[in-house]
Amino acid sequence: MEAVSEKKVQTASPEMAEKFKQTVHDAARRFRQIPESETIRYVSHLDADGLSSAAIIVRTLIRENRKYCLSIVPQLTEEVAVQLAAESYTCYLFTDLGTGQFGLLKKHLSARGKSVFILDHHHIQDEFEAEGMVHVNPHLAGIESSREISGAGVSYLFSKALDGKNSDLAHIALVGAIGDMQEDRGFSGFNREILEDAKASGMIKVITGLRLFGVQTKPLHKVLEYSSEYPIPGVTGSESAAIQFLLQLGILPKAGNGWRKLTDLTDEELVKLATGVVMQRIENKEPDEIIGPVYILKHEAEGSPLRDAKEFATLLNACGRLDKASAGIGACLGDGKCREEALRTLDDYKHHISNSLTWYENALKQKGAGSGAIILDNGVTIINAEENVLPTMIGTLASILSKSRNFSPGTFVLSLARAEDNFTKISMRLAGEKSVKGRFNLTEMLTAIAERVGGQAGGHHEAAGALIKTEKEEEFIAIAREYLAQRRIEERVAS
Ligand SMILES: [Mn+2]
Question: What distance in angstroms lies between residue 146's CA and the mean position of ligand 1's atoms?
Answer without folding.
Answer: 10
